[in-house]
Amino acid sequence: MIKRIGIECESIENDTWGVARMTNKLLEEITKRPELKNEFEFYLYFKSKIPDYPYLQNPIFKKKIVRPPIVPSSFSLYYYLYLPIFLWFRRVDAVFFPNYMLPLIFFGRSMVMLTDDIYYESRNPKLPFRYRLAYRIFAGWTARHASKIMAISKTSKKELVKLFKIKPERITVNYLGVDISEGQDKKGNGQYILYVGQAFPRRHLKETILAFEKLITQQNEHTYKLENVSILELKLVAIGPDKYEVPTIGPLISEVNNRLDKQVVIHKDYVKNDELAKLYAGAKALVYVSDREAFGLPPMEALSFGVPPVIADNELGHELFGEYAFYSKSGEVNDIRDAVKQALIDQQKINKIKHEGPEFVKKYNWKNFTDRLINDFKKYEQ
């Protein structure tokens, strides 16, 4: 008998980061498997519009905008009210909620992606109270009532068990995938260090900018000679929107560039995937020193190009990257500077990452991610 699986898809309506990227890649992978039509129907639910991605035209998908006529679009109403009510009358065998939160009035079988980030965000005094309250209520409800919870690393699973008091057997680990595109063997020779990701304070872009400034103003410049490039010619390219409570990145970049009397730090909120791939390919290193992540795609994407990632020295980093990364002891400026310096001058490790890193990354792929999720769906009885 055909299993009917619902997938909540609001995130892909306008975004390409985080949950949206994961959802897009899952749906793309499903369309590569025509044999699935013999076992599944996938029902995709949207808040206000159905994007015009070509893969959504595949007949295996049944798409629905869940909103009463003439009612303004609202995430809260869609997610917590309209969608669960709709699903009450249009039952499916299970629903995948990739956005951390299980609606209170949804009573069917569910798989919910949950990360430990949401626990800390719900207790972050810098967030508006209404967000903290929503995170506490709905993430807590997920922890207690989701049929299955998907963690995206073993470290994250361990944190979920500890923070939310979830029984380990209710949590399945499903590593995210990394885009491995053709041409990644054609490395560029850009004269820059790269940062990619939404700039939350925990990811220390502010400290990275200051660390970079310190790095290129060191007195013994000859110590940092890189093949045919002086470290004084390097730039820092940061891609991702400023998510600090008070806008921080733009003003800081202006200050640093003014102090150095040249444009050494460049910031863009967003670039298209083709441009991002070129940036990865040409980077000397990628810096992504984050206090907390459940996975963290940018350093893994950089590694797929043979680019050394600089990451936080924590359990998750060692679980995912092992010897294929440079580690910063903390998010402090001097520690980041020292780790970036090693990523520029430790030629033996740089060469190891360049030649072995892309092969190492292949185990983190969207095919495996989708296989594991499909197998979980198969376990739901009619």
Main β sheet profile = 7 strands, parallel
Question: Using DSSP, what is the number of strands?
Answer: 13
Rough outline: globular
CATH homologous superfamily name of the largest domain?
Glycogen Phosphorylase B
Structural class: alpha/beta
CATH class membership of the largest domain:
Alpha Beta
CATH topology of the largest domain: Rossmann fold
User: Taking all residues together, what is the mean pLDDT?
Assistant: 90
In order across it, which strands form the biggest sheet?
3-2-1-4-5-6-7
CATH architecture of the largest domain: 3-Layer(aba) Sandwich
Number of helices: 13
Low-confidence stretches: none
**Pattern of helices and strands:** EHEEHEEHHEHEEHEHEHEHEHEHHH
The CA-CA distance between the termini, in Å, is: 8 Å
Number of domains in the coordinates? 2
- Beta-strand residue fraction: 15-25%
Rg of Cα set:
22 Å
What proportion of the residues is helical, as a percent range? 25-40%
Structural summary, described in words:
The structure is a single chain. The protein is α/β, with parallel strands linked by helices and 382 residues long. It has two domains: 189 residues, 3-Layer(aba) Sandwich (Rossmann fold); 170 residues, Rossmann fold. The protein has 13 helices and 13 strands. It has a seven-stranded parallel sheet. It has a six-stranded parallel sheet with strand order 10-9-8-11-12-13, sandwiched between helices. Strand 8, helix 6 and strand 9 form a beta-alpha-beta unit.
Key terms:
7-stranded parallel sheet; alpha/beta; 13 helices; Rossmann fold; 6-stranded parallel sheet; globular; 382 residues; 2 domains; 13 strands; single chain
